[in-house]
Specification:
The chain is an alpha/beta fold and 316 residues long. It is built from 11 helices and 12 strands. It is a single-pass type II membrane protein.
């Protein structure tokens, strides 16, 4: 009996030591520290701040923002792929699809991997190598996300792309703050440069993820960026509403009807929303109609800033 008790105690001690070892490894591999960072927030500029600028200053600002869009796709995404190609991606200064394998019916940059983190790494690496001198903002998303690029450019108006900038809809996992990939991820050219350089360090930014467990691609991205001094910042409008959404607009409206039945619109979504996620291909076309085609004749909208479409674009 005594021997059995001794074995049990030894087993408990060994188990505890193993758990402590795994926890320590987890902190090392994900770049966690015992001191958590404060939740960071970035707000879109107020309309009044833009109106205070001269017409020439506004035009220069709008023309200085060049957005390169990266859409990660797989063969199973064909219907979404077609919808994104026909709708919002036309509003990017340049949009390219990065696919896990070759698909004959669509042009894409073939990455030859099904692993989402490896796809993301390769896409960012190629984007930096090919376009570091042409674009100052890099927007990555999935094919079920609808993006309003003009609102993204408005949000970026007062941001400096030469500074480390990483934003979207932030979430927290343990000590790690990361941008949820479903809502889209925005990197400045400086953040992308730092990320590109850290890719060559397998200890800080492993190609295959963690040694014991595997993080999702958006969390792994945050770990790599954290080692370069770049931290996730939540994007909000001037009223502190989220502007990168990880749900469809329909779901957000239903939630608002339940939680804010007297003020559904105010409780739902920002007027400056940039993304909605989880949309079907048909819903993307409906969004395109509502955002870009529907007009209320006789009603004049006097925006503080006009953001022109990319030259040669066939956007709506």
């Amino acid at each position: 009996m005594i021997a059995e008790s001794g074995s049990f105690v030894k087993g408990m001690m060994l188990g505890g030591l193993f758990c402590a070892f795994v926890t320590l490894l987890g902190h090392i591999k994900t770049g966690h520290s015992t001191k958590s960072h404060e939740h960071r927030h970035l707000q879109a500029p107020k309309r009044e701040a833009i109106l205070n600028l001269s017409k020439d200053e506004r035009l220069e600002l709008s023309q200085s923002i060049r957005v390169y869009c990266i859409i990660l796709v797989k063969p199973k995404d064909l219907a979404h792929w077609a919808a994104v190609k026909d709708t919002w991606s036309k509003h990017c200064d340049k949009a390219e699809f990065y696919s896990s394998e070759n698909v004959k019916v669509f042009d894409s940059i073939v990455l030859d991997t099904n692993d989402m983190w490896t796809m993301m790494r390769k896409a960012y690496k190629l984007a930096y190598e090919n376009y570091k001198d042409d674009y100052n903002w890099f927007f990555l998303t999935h094919p079920s996300t609808f993006a309003i690029i003009e609102n993204l450019k408005y949000f970026l108006l007062r941001q400096d792309s030469s500074q480390p900038f990483y934003t979207g809809r932030t979430e927290t996992s343990g000590d790690l703050q990361y941008v949820n990939g479903d809502g889209g991820i925005v990197l400045s050219i400086e953040s992308l440069r730092r990320l590109y350089n850290i890719f060559s360090d397998p200890d800080k930014c492993p190609e295959q993820g963690g040694m014991i467990w595997k993080l999702s691609e958006d969390k792994q991205l945050a770990v790599c960026l954290k080692y370069t001094g770049v931290h996730a910042e939540n994007a909000e409008d001037s009223g502190k509403k989220d502007i990168f959404n990880t749900k469809p607009v329909g779901s957000l409206i239903k939630e608002a009807m339940l939680s804010h039945p007297q003020e559904v619109v105010e409780g739902c979504c920002s007027d400056m929303a940039i993304t909605f996620s989880g949309l079907s291909p048909n819903h993307m076309h409906v969004m395109m109609y509502g955002v870009y085609r529907l007009r209320a004749y006789g009603h004049s909208f006097n925006d503080a800033l006009v953001i022109l479409p990319p030259p040669g674009s066939d956007n709506d």
